[in-house]
Amino acid sequence: AAVEAAAGAWGDADRALLGGKGAGLADMSRAGLPVPPGFTISTEACRAYLHGQRDGRLDPALWQETVEHLHALEAREGRRLGDPRDPLLVSVRSGAAISMPGMMDTVLNLGLHDAAAEGLAEATGDARFALDSYRRFLQMFANVVLGMPHGDFERILEDEARRAGRAGDGELGPDELRRVIAAYKAHVRARLGRDFPQNPLDQLRMAVVAVFQSWQNDRAIVYRRLNRIPDDLGTAVTVQRMVFGNRGPASGTGVLFTRDPATGAPGMVGEYLPRAQGEDVVAGLRTPQPIATLRQAQPTVYADLEQVCARLEAHYGDVQDIEFTVEERRLFLLQTRTAKRTARAAVRIAHDLCAEGKIDRAAAVGRVDPVQLAQLLHPTFTGDLPPAVATGLAASPGAAVGEVCFDPDQAEALVRSGHRVVLLRTETAPDDIHGIAAAQGVLTARGGMTCHAAIVTRGMGKPCIVGCEALRIDEAAGLARIGEHEVRAGEVLSLDGATGAVYLGSVAVGEPELGAEFETLLGWADAIRRMGVRANADTPQDARHARALGAEGIGLVRTEHMFMAPERLPVVHRMVLAETDAERAAALADLLPMQEEDFHGIFQAMDGLPVTIRLLDPPLHEFLPKIEVLLARRATATGPELAEVEELLRKTRALTEVNPMLGHRGSRLAVTWPAIYEMQCRAIIRAAARRAAEGGDARPEIMFPLIGMASEMAAMKALYQRVAAEEAARSGFVLQCPIGATIEVPRGCLAAGAVAEHAEFFSYGTNDLTQTTFGFSRDDAEAKFLHAYLQQGLLGSNPFETLDREGVGELIAIGNRRGRAARPTLKIGVCGEQGGDPASIAMFQELGLDYVSCSPPRVPVARLAAAQAALRAG
Ligand code: PEP
Ligand code: MG
User: Fold this and answer.
1) What percent of the chain has pLDDT over 90?
2) Nearest atom, ligand 1, residue 705 CA
């Protein structure tokens, strides 16, 4: 067999210097695997070339070294490059440190010229093979090195095949190939005004330069931008003895994965093309066969391949994607690299490799990309996608297909009668919640990653695209324009919340499949991570969902969402618009039992686990009647109704703020109207008392929003204690309940020491903290100017998505330091949207947070990301 299991020790070659391909080949040849001999020119040499003149000349010292290595190869092989009697031929192949499949260039069969082709024919006794190799070399060199279009040569080849009545290029005989070669050479001369280079050393020098230069071709540049690969790495160039898959019927070429990259199932998956060279597989001129066909055709080669796969996996501890050639029944490996894979396969492979003892649990946990894992948790579009008609911000992942609907009430009604709808809005508001709940997905023209629609849909695990600037809705006309398309209510639209793409019509959806491996892997992650993972949940249903996904409690209950149920809204309006304490007290008395019920349900769902309840934090405008609605009513009202509408208008206008986000919200509300928070504290205590009476274990933690001053925190704590004392006197029930602050204005971080004197925990509200630190409106920034900051590179990422470490993160570091100095037992978490973002989770670990809290569907992602953060922190 070509492979000897006991062969030499593995290397661990320098990828940065040799590129992935060069390093893999060096590793494999040291291990004694069958690799054609050769040498690699480093990425350093490429960088030097690209920084220099780039005039097609190689540095003389580099060229001299290259020639010396070539001579060593010639000595070893006992043949000279391009020798007319029996030529050594080489491949000249690109390979960057980070895999960029197919983006850069390669030349095969180099060293051939007119005399050498005839010499090769004689030496091998196979004229067809020799001429076919020359034909391939002319075509590839002309394309890659001389810059001529590939298609010209394909046409010449096809014409000849047609004239000869042959099916494919594998079938052309020597005379036909000679005609093709002559036509190729004539074409080069006609186009370039010079002959095809016949000197093998000239060919080699030109090919090395061309491979260097291919680092800068358009597709490589685009690929690097898409994959965030630095532009200054350069490519290595590997020069290797040719092995010939086109040698005869017992030769061929193939690519394979050591396991199935789509499902992760064990066993080789790949393709083989007999009597061919590598580029034939890519070119798609002939259809390759499944790798399993080799088992019958060439059982020894197949067995060798299986052995190679096992050794490669054992060495790299990961699934490999390999290229190989069979030359007259002998196997040669041309490349090995870590295989790209689907999220589903990534989970299965990490799990299985660990179960097989090839990697440990920490390595397995490190193998799955948490961002990719998120795809696995949501439905995705399958099959071929039509072109997108627009894209917006990918606010909440998943695939939604439904009839277009512009109105939340109508959406609810349509869904009740069996339709599936997608809700299109300019932007959403809290009172759209029922429509959002009913819809398959949501598309808005405005808003950013922390806007209402984004937060609510993320919580529900529902697809959502926001800030889709191409969307213009004319609700009255019952239509929307999306770019140049017109879409009417009832027409079908498909939304991809993972990419932000909008498609006309219905696209096929595949449901997520989570195997047992997924649970096991997350269990390993839980044992590794140091930060807790909680969920943001406002309803018992969301709480149960979060718990099922592994949440260790609730880090944020946004109580304002409870005030938006249609039957409550009139009471809420009465409470907000009240002008006397008595009026407000009456409205609150109606709300108290409803709130008690809300909290009771959540405590039940989260029995035994902490539930952080944030008291009411409305930008108040969200709770006021809409001025436009009132004006419309006034236009038709008469008599007492008119008087009532006038009164409502007056009160609403009086409460309307110029800048509600910086206005009468958060704990400020309780400084002016303490009765609202008193009612909420009472409801929490009573709900906990009921749970205790039922034998349950409610663990509320009360959080006061938008705390910027120690005095505010002290006042809020006193408010709570007053209510707790009243409740204890009334019922005898005493609640042990930590009291804390949402830190979401910079002053709260700076005054954290004094705030912590009155607070047992902090939770960073990084949505507001980002807004207030940058002074970027969270509702407007992303649609209006943030994209320009991102495009021009003024910001590396969206700070509403990934924590801004430099500014917001620094405030958190200060807050932690000062807070913990004042109160060493201070518990610190985060409840902004960044809490579910893997890159931010790594920063929260570094900043020393105790837990993160995120929307329920992101809980598994956060568990994995927190484990990886702990592994990186060491
Ligand atoms: C925050 O500001 O980060 C937060 C969690 O609160 P909200 O998004 O409700 O303002
Ligand atoms: Mg906030």
Assistant:
1) 75
2) 6
**What are the distances in angstroms from CA 225 to CA 97, 100, 126, 215, 795?**
16, 11, 46, 13, 16
Q: How far is the CA of 705 from the centre of ligand 2 (A)?
A: 7
**Ligand 1 atom 6, closest CA:** 765
Which of 831, 851, 852 has the most ligand 1 atoms within 8 A of CB, as the residue to mutate? Answer: 831
> How far is ligand 1, taken at its centre, from the CA of residue 865, in Å?
21
Question: Which of 551, 544, 498 shows the shortest CA–CA distance to 522?
Answer: 551
Give the closest ligand to the alpha carbon of residue 764: 1
Distance of CA 90 to the CA centre of its chain: 40
Report which residue type is found at 606: M
Quick one: which ligand is closest to 835's CA?
1
The region, left, alpha or beta by phi > 0 then psi within -120 to 50, assigned to residue 490 is left
Q: What is the mean pLDDT of residues 28-40?
A: 93
Between the CA of 740 and the centroid of ligand 1 the distance, in Å, is 15
Q: How far apart are CA 140 and CA 144, in angstroms?
A: 6
Atom 9 of ligand 1, nearest CA residue: 558
The residue contributing the CA closest to ligand 1 atom 4 is 765
- The two tokens of residue 857 are 């569907």
| Contact call for residues 273 and 281 (beta carbons, < 8 A) | yes
Q: Is 615 helix (H, G, I), strand (E, B) or coil?
A: coil
- pLDDT, tens only, 510-526: 877 777 899 999 999 99
What angle in degrees, to the nearest 10, is found between the helix axes of 627-636 and 639-655? 160
Contact 335, 316 (CB under 8 A): no
Q: Residue 271's CB: how many other CB atoms inside 10 A? A: 15
What element of type H or E holds 369?
A: none
pLDDT-based confidence at 101, cuts 50/70/90?
confident
Q: Nearest Cα to 795, choosing from 786, 807, 803? A: 786
Find how far residue 145's CA is from the centre of its chain. Answer: 36
CB count in 10 Å sphere of residue 183: 18
- Closest atom of ligand 1 to 455 CA is 8
Least confident of 239-248, 394-403, 424-433, 725-734: 424-433
Q: Which residues of 26-40 are buried (b: 16+ CB within 10 A; e: fewer)?
A: bbbbbbbbbbbebbb
> Quick count: other Cβ atoms within 10 Å of Cβ 337?
18
Residue 698 CA to ligand 1 center (angstroms) comes to 24
Whether the per-residue pLDDT at 5 is higher than 50: the answer is no
Please give the average per-residue pLDDT across 254-258, as a whole number.
92
pLDDT tens per residue across span 358-409: 999 999 999 999 988 887 888 889 878 899 999 999 888 899 999 999 999 9
What amino acid positions are annotated as catalytic residues? 452, 831
Number of other CB atoms surrounding residue 734 within 10 Å: 12
Residues enclosing ligand 1, CB less than 6 A? 450, 556, 558, 617, 744, 765-768, 831-832
In angstroms, the CA 606 to CA 547 distance is 7
* Ligand with minimal distance to 536 CA: 1
* Residue 170 scores a pLDDT above 60: no
**Confidence class for position 2, pLDDT limits 50, 70, 90:** very low
* pLDDT at residue 183 greater than cutoff 80: yes
Pocket test for ligand 1, best of 767, 803, 858 (most atoms within 8 A of CB): 767
Alpha-helix runs per DSSP H in 417-511: 433-438, 452-460
CA-CA distance, 865 to 874, in Å (whole number)? 14
Q: Do the beta carbons of residue 670 and residue 680 sit within 8 Å?
A: no
Ligand nearest 560 Cα, by number? 1
Predicted model pTM:
0.81
Look at the block and give the residue holding tokens 């971080």.
Answer: 749
CA of 80 to the centre of ligand 1 (A): 72
Contact 444, 425 (CB under 8 A): yes
Instruction: Specify whether the CB–CB gap between 235 and 96 falls below 8 A.
Output: yes
Q: Which two tokens stand for residue 359?
A: 């990697």
- What separation in Å is there between the alpha carbon of 829 and the centre of ligand 1? 13
